[in-house]
UniProtKB/TrEMBL annotation:
Pfam families: Nitroreductase. It comes from the Bacteria. The keyword Flavoprotein applies. InterPro entries: Nitroreductase, Nitroreductase-like, Nitroreductase/BluB. Keywords: Flavoprotein, FMN, Oxidoreductase. Residues 37-205 form the Nitroreductase domain. This is Nitroreductase family protein.
Amino acid sequence: MFAKDALSYAAIPLPDRFEHTDDQMRARAQAFHDHMRRRHTVRDFSARPVPREVIETCIRTAGTAPSGANHQPWHFAAIASPALKQQIRDEAEEEERRFYAGGAGDEWIKALEPIGTTADKPHLTIAPWLIVVFAQRWGEFDDGTRYKNYYVPESVNIATGFLLAALHDAGLVTLTHTPNPMKFLTPALNRPASEKPTMIIAVGHPAENATVPEVAKMKKPLEQISSFFD
């Protein structure tokens, strides 16, 4: 909560400083790349429980992300309640049926064929946790008056990336899901009108028979995703 009378600038020494040699940086960068390339989007979940403390710590990691004016315009609703997960699945599948029945258009449906998705979303009830990401369009001072948040989509997207990396590092698998529209999530999770749901992340362990689409392993090479100007 921000206070109107505490918005002045104050500098402190850099609290955390890392000094690595060039060789150490190369090794660490390669190790992180090798670890992250083992991350997979999984649709087949085990019902094996995941401790709440793990989810809490991963959300704390997401909360360390940079944001416009440091307003941290995000909220993460973590759901383990079977009844609430069923409600979310019912509503999401209703939206998905409209999507696959023609709402998406032929081109979009064709693009999804290699992924193998359908309107059925059993992962929303099987995965032990769902994390719904909300973007906060405005905030409130301690006296209740509104203030504007800045670069909200960019900030929330960065924080979501932190969250996915943290969950992977904890040994969990995830599936990002974006039913459209998602407005049913706001009243279901008792969130204020200032917040817009952007994503549902299913979190858990992979099922013994889990598979991934072959096409998911096809990543663009460095020369297609980057340009260097030395």
